[in-house]
Amino acid sequence: MELREIEIFLVLAEELHFGRTAERMRVTPARISQTIKKQERAIGAELFKRTSRSVQLTPTGMVLRDGLAVGYQQIKEALAAATAAGQGITGELNVAYSAAWCGTLVVAATDSFRARHPNCLVRIHESPLLDPLGPLRNGTHDIQLVELPIDEPDIVNGPVLFSEPRALVVPVGHPFARRDTVSLEDLSEVPLITVTGQPQYFLDHHYPHRTPKGRPIARGPFTTAWQEVLALVGAGKGVSPTCARAAQYYSRPDVVYVPFSDAPLVEYGLLWSATNCTPKVQAFTEILLERAQAASASSPGH
To answer: Which architecture does CATH list for 3-87?
Structure first.
């Protein structure tokens, strides 16, 4: 029995319907019927009981189904492993993310990647705030999902996966905490706590020195850790812009997340080293993109 014939038998054993089996196998119902009759002649017994209303496995068909299913799965796994080896999708892939909401997407994509490429081990890391591109450059991380913009000659920008609205994290007792929204112009009234470690153009984008109307924005403390940002904000040392989804992941009694009414969305995209554009990286990128698109399609308001 050829592999294609095994597939036809197993699909029919699952569907118990010649038309649906033909659709899945992309052949005509007549081809399905011919294949099953050929198998029955070779075995010398009926595999399916057919009536005008139903299709059922015979006891012989059940024995064949149970025996073939295990072997067929092993064949598929062996073919997948050989294909992965031929494409270079083996070994280890180190994937990093910069924010908790990015981590959720990375974990989901990792599950899909492991199912498709079982011979490649995926390790998940949190991207450091201090020198976040360093692990890409030294090979510790193969790919990262991070906030943009990033524009470096030795770093490749992959697809933008999603974007999120911005918010301002403020002390719970601050007047801004009682408002429904804040504007970029409001930043001129409070010191801005800055997370350092990123390229200067990135910091200028997320932590501007002036409002859109040109008003200066005072600088508060500098830090290299997000929990330090929240502690400083909670202590009344300033405010800090962030993604609005941070409120879901980093709730604290001493801070409030107030949405911006006029700030551009925060974009999140993939990065990898220009010297490390491997089949593994490309395969994981494709799966992340699929997952991001599926998440966007299922989100409220889509």
So the answer is: Orthogonal Bundle (1.10)
- Residue 6, amino acid: I
| Two tokens, residue 201 | 């153009």
What's CA 225's distance to the chain center, in Å? 24
Place of tokens 């959720």: 104
Give yes or no on whether 91-160+267-298 and 166-264 have one common fold. yes
Domain 91-160+267-298, CATH among 3.40.640.10, 1.10.10.60, 3.40.190.10, 3.20.20.70: 3.40.190.10
How confident is the model at residue 302, as a pLDDT?
A: 44
Mean pLDDT by 10 residues, the chain (302 residues): 90 93 93 94 95 93 91 78 72 95 94 88 93 94 97 96 97 97 98 92 95 97 94 98 96 97 97 95 93 75 46
- pLDDT at position 298 is 61
Q: Hey, where are the domains in the chain?
A: 3-87, 91-160+267-298, 166-264
